[in-house]
């Protein structure tokens, strides 16, 4: 007698093997399970999600902080004393970590959608923890070294918020498939299902209504757009030539700068010269010419000593902006022979180019011999250069009674009343201090506003839409290529896109929940006998291996009697003969 067993069909699950193999090193079928994930694995999934969100924030921060990479390197230099491009290792590690965590999160979501048990491999757990700890350390370090830079996140949202909203909307809508499947098929108590569903609905509604909080200057009528902001060459064009040198200022004028900005220091013999740092170590060869004085204040050198220093070779050797390779041999030779630039030379260049000048004057220390006469030294240089005094603006906002004809600005954020009391007609503000509302208030009261530093097209476009008259930039060659704001949209057009997107998302979410409900109810009402009988239907696909039990019922010539019984037990995958 032969006992018949149902035919068993085993499909090649290549994709499932790939997902579970990489995520949890479970490549074999018997290693996988569709049981509920353990509590610890759920905790690891939450850690993975937290790492992804933190890295997403971290990556976005560095993406928009490209505007201030030079400021970051300068801050690190002031602490360490060594000039290095510290952004390269940060960007490389962020890219690798974000890609790794994103890949693991995608695999985890595939586990959930396929009904597979989460079981993160121990090597990946170490990798996730290492990435999380490294990112947290980076956030703490940046907050310590460069804490003011967090302001750029809020500023960037004025340009990116509409696009981030669409991305968040698409992501939450796609997650509705997993949420619906989990809530409907979850064996846990009803209260837990309601809590998960409630959290998802709150997040969904928050994203739907988020545009109500947006302040985007470029959502405006294009007919209200003001003229293109003037570009001030901040220390010239320091990405193309050494900062505060004649070559740099010439490059800035060649790339459309309408004004020049420079940092002024007074020498020990009363000659105003251009230098950003307190010492000469970074931008000159003072360590070779005066090795014993390389840490001295730059203002304690006389003009003859300053003129003997090379102020261009450092740019060719360090290549701080990765632009040296784009220079011709003639440009490199000219840059390599640059010396420290005097204020008179820069002002004469501005006068010949019919442009104006913005001077950031650093007062000498109290023990400096020109401590009381720095103002007259600077005024003498302006008069000697032959430039109109109405074209020269300087900070700090002091000695106002002695200033006649010269324009003065301040870097402080003042109220309109204080500005009127001091008689100030212009402000030079960091972009983090100049909100859209403040800019509109200043302009309405005839106060000119210059915003610095503006090096990226998105920030330039945002300030253009805000009506800013001028910006100070390290990259005039980049802003020159922005003839129009990157994006400009009327309020009615944006409202239509916003509401349409929300309605489409809502329809998709409702459809997904209804489909998952129908799908789960259909599986529950499915007849188990139909499931068993469907397994015996042969499948013609080449990707399916069919294991059949071929039963041969005949007399054997090897001595087996007709009363022998051949039984086949498929349990455990073994066949057994019994008499």
UniProtKB/TrEMBL annotation:
<keyword id="KW-1133">Transmembrane helix</keyword>
<dbReference type="InterPro" id="IPR030395">
    <property type="entry name" value="GP_PDE_dom"/>
</dbReference>
<feature type="transmembrane region" description="Helical">
    <location>
        <begin position="496"/>
        <end position="515"/>
    </location>
</feature>
<comment type="similarity">
    <text>Belongs to the glycerophosphoryl diester phosphodiesterase family.</text>
</comment>
<dbReference type="GO" id="GO:0005886">
    <property type="term" value="C:plasma membrane"/>
</dbReference>
<feature type="transmembrane region" description="Helical">
    <location>
        <begin position="192"/>
        <end position="214"/>
    </location>
</feature>
<dbReference type="InterPro" id="IPR017946">
    <property type="entry name" value="PLC-like_Pdiesterase_TIM-brl"/>
</dbReference>
<keyword id="KW-0472">Membrane</keyword>
<dbReference type="Pfam" id="PF03009">
    <property type="entry name" value="GDPD"/>
</dbReference>
<feature type="transmembrane region" description="Helical">
    <location>
        <begin position="122"/>
        <end position="142"/>
    </location>
</feature>
<dbReference type="GO" id="GO:0045666">
    <property type="term" value="P:positive regulation of neuron differentiation"/>
</dbReference>
<keyword id="KW-0325">Glycoprotein</keyword>
<protein>
    <submittedName>
        <fullName>Glycerophosphodiester phosphodiesterase domain containing 5</fullName>
    </submittedName>
</protein>
<feature type="domain" description="GP-PDE">
    <location>
        <begin position="229"/>
        <end position="483"/>
    </location>
</feature>
<dbReference type="GO" id="GO:0006629">
    <property type="term" value="P:lipid metabolic process"/>
</dbReference>
<keyword id="KW-0812">Transmembrane</keyword>
<dbReference type="GO" id="GO:0008889">
    <property type="term" value="F:glycerophosphodiester phosphodiesterase activity"/>
</dbReference>
<feature type="transmembrane region" description="Helical">
    <location>
        <begin position="162"/>
        <end position="185"/>
    </location>
</feature>
<keyword id="KW-0378">Hydrolase</keyword>
<feature type="transmembrane region" description="Helical">
    <location>
        <begin position="88"/>
        <end position="110"/>
    </location>
</feature>
<feature type="transmembrane region" description="Helical">
    <location>
        <begin position="42"/>
        <end position="63"/>
    </location>
</feature>
């Amino acid at each position: 007698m032969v006992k018949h067993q149902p035919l068993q069909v085993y499909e090649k699950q290549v994709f499932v093997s790939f997902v579970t193999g990489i995520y949890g090193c479970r490549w074999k079928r018997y290693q996988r399970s569709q049981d509920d994930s353990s509590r610890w694995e759920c905790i690891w999934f939450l850690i993975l999600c937290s790492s992804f969100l933190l890295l997403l924030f971290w990556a976005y921060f560095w993406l928009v902080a490209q505007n201030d990479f030079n400021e970051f390197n300068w801050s690190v230099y002031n602490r360490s004393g060594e000039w290095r491009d510290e952004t390269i290792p940060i960007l490389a590690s962020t890219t690798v970590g974000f890609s790794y965590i994103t890949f693991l999160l995608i695999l985890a979501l595939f586990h959930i959608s396929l009904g597979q048990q989460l079981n993160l491999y121990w090597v990946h757990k170490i990798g996730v923890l290492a990435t999380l700890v490294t990112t947290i350390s980076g956030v703490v370090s940046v907050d310590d070294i460069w804490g003011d830079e967090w302001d750029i996140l809020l500023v960037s949202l004025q340009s990116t918020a509409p696009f981030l909203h669409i991305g968040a909307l698409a992501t939450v809508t796609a997650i509705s498939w997993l949420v619906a499947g989990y809530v409907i098929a979850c064996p846990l108590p009803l209260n837990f299902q309601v809590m998960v569903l409630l959290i998802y609905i709150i997040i969904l509604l928050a994203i739907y209504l988020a545009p109500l909080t947006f302040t985007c200057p470029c959502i405006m009528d294009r007919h209200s757009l003001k003229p293109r902001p003037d570009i001030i060459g901040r220390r010239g064009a320091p990405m193309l030539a050494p900062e505060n040198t004649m070559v740099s200022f010439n490059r800035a004028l060649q790339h459309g700068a309408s004004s020049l900005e420079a940092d002024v220091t007074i020498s020990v013999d009363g000659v105003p010269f251009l230098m950003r740092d307190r010492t000469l170590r970074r931008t000159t060869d003072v360590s070779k010419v005066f090795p014993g004085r390389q840490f001295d204040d730059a203002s304690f050198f006389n003009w003859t000593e300053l003129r003997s220093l090379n102020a261009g070779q450092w740019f060719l050797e360090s290549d701080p902006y990765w632009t040296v390779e784009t220079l011709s041999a003639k440009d490199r030779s000219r840059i390599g022979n640059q010396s420290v630039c005097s204020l008179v030379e820069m002002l004469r260049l501005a006068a010949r180019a019919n442009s104006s000048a913005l001077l950031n004057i650093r007062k000498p220390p109290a023990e400096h011999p020109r401590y009381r006469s720095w103002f007259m030294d600077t005024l003498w240089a302006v008069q000697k250069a032959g430039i109109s005094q109405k074209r020269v603006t300087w900070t700090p906002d002091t000695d106002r009674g002695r200033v006649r004809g010269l324009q003065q600005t301040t870097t402080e954020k003042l109220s309109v009343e204080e500005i009127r009391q001091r008689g100030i007609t212009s402000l030079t503000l960091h972009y983090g201090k100049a909100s859209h509302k403040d800019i509109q208030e200043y302009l309405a009261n005839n106060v000119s506003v210059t915003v610095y530093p503006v090096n990226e097209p998105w920030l330039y476009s945002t300030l253009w839409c805000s009506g800013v008259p001028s910006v100070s930039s390290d990259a005039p060659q980049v802003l020159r290529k922005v003839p129009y704001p990157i994006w400009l949209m009327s309020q009615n057009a944006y409202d239509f896109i916003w509401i349409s997107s929300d309605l489409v998302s809502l329809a998709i979410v409702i459809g997904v929940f209804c489909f998952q409900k129908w799908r789960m109810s259909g599986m529950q009402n499915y007849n188990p006998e139909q499931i068993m009988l469907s397994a015996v239907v042969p499948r013609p696909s080449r990707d399916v291996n069919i294991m059949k039990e071929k039963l041969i019922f005949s007399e054997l010539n090897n001595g087996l009697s007709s009363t022998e019984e051949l039984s086949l037990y498929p349990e455990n995958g073994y066949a057994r003969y019994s008499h």
